[in-house]
């Protein structure tokens, strides 16, 4: 007998219990429900057991097969709740991060949101959205902090990030705050939860390094690429394009300093900021 699910335990459990109920009412196996989608039966089983959130694409597929609209409507409610603090174009990315097996990121202009301290996040938000109210600024800072809880899981997702050297040489913050930001990144590396590489000034990669890149791989979904500017974002799921951008990312990573050298550089820069010895 299948183990019962406590639908009151949380949002994933609620969806999981309803999905199993609707599937069994329709007389479908997991294999039949998965047919015609990008999702495997492992993913569906995880959702039914309340261990994984339901992606919007899966909700649409399930509703189409079962002849319902429940999952799409309810997923939109959850997405709307999660949008608070995120730009509309980024909300889906923040949701996809929760399902990612691996995240690879490149940034040449800003320390990525997953690694930002509150002081750094505040500086970025106030620079890009100077008319935001204090409450709006704080909501965006809180949203970044919420994203960072991804690292509460000791193994998933794997996170590998390449940062341009200018991000630690040209501070966005006052020296003490910048030291705290670099200490934070170094601590994440020391905990073995993230891998960071620094791309040197003179790396011969400028023609391919202008756009930030965020690549996500999943257990039961096709990979995604996300890139953005200050006021827009674009998610790409075309396999050919994602593969091409992954090659670009691999070239950036190959040109970057090794992880252990990058960590030493981060810690040295933090010490210089802390003691007023920083020289660009």
Rounded to an integer in angstroms, the radius of gyration calculated over CA atoms is 21 Å
Mean pLDDT: 86
By DSSP (H or I, 4+ residues per run), the number of helices equals 12
Query: Which range does the strand content fall in?
Result: 5-15%
Describe this structure in words.
This protein has 280 residues and is an alpha/beta fold. 50% of the residues lie in helices and 13% in strands. The protein is built from 12 helices and 6 strands. It has a 6-stranded mixed sheet with strand order 3-2-1-4-5-6, sandwiched between helices. Strand 4 (213-218) and strand 5 (224-229) form a beta hairpin. The longest helix is centred in the C-terminal third of the chain and has 17 residues, at 239-255.
Task: Tag the structure with descriptive keywords.
alpha/beta, six-stranded mixed beta sheet, 280 residues
Q: Any chance you could write out the topology, listing elements then pairs?
A:
Elements: H1 11-25, H2 30-34, H3 41-48, H4 56-66, H5 70-83, H6 91-97, E1 100-107, H7 118-128, H8 134-148, E2 158-164, H9 166-169, H10 175-190, E3 195-199, E4 213-218, E5 224-229, E6 232-236, H11 239-255, H12 259-274
Parallel strand pairs: 1-2, 2-3
Antiparallel strand pairs: 1-4, 4-5, 5-6
Report a brief summary of the structure.
The chain is 50% helix and 13% strand. The chain has 12 helices and 6 strands.
